[in-house]
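Lay summary. Proteins are chains of building blocks that fold into shapes, and those shapes determine what they do. In this project we predict the shape from the chain. Here is one chain we studied, written as its sequence of building blocks.
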Amino acid sequence: MDLLVKQKFESYPKNISALLSKIRELIFITAKQDGISNINETLKWGEPSYLSPIGSTIRFDWKATKPQQYCVYFNCKTSLIETFKEVYGDTFIYEGNRAIVFNVEQDLPIIELAHCISMSLRYKKIKHLALLGA
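And here is the predicted shape, written in a compact code that computers can read:
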């Protein structure tokens, strides 16, 4: 784990760190399943961020100002969130065209979220496809 990312995880409350670690793990598992071996892990805007050479950046974070939620962020200049809304509808709560919002008490819809992560990790290769090939 990148040192700055590790320090960021250590700054979260323990329960939040555990939740966000699941998201991080899902990103790496999904990348491996998609044959993407070189994920760049860093901090962008103070948030853990993940980028593949053929994809669009995925970030996530928790804010003390909204302690009951955390978000997974996608590039708002892509069609990712629009596609997620079309494919998954009410499965997720969305924040505009930039994030999926989760309540700290809810179970993660792992299969659906992994598919969204996959689309983001491969975005440059699939952006020309209807519904990103979903």
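What the prediction tells us: The mean pLDDT is 94.
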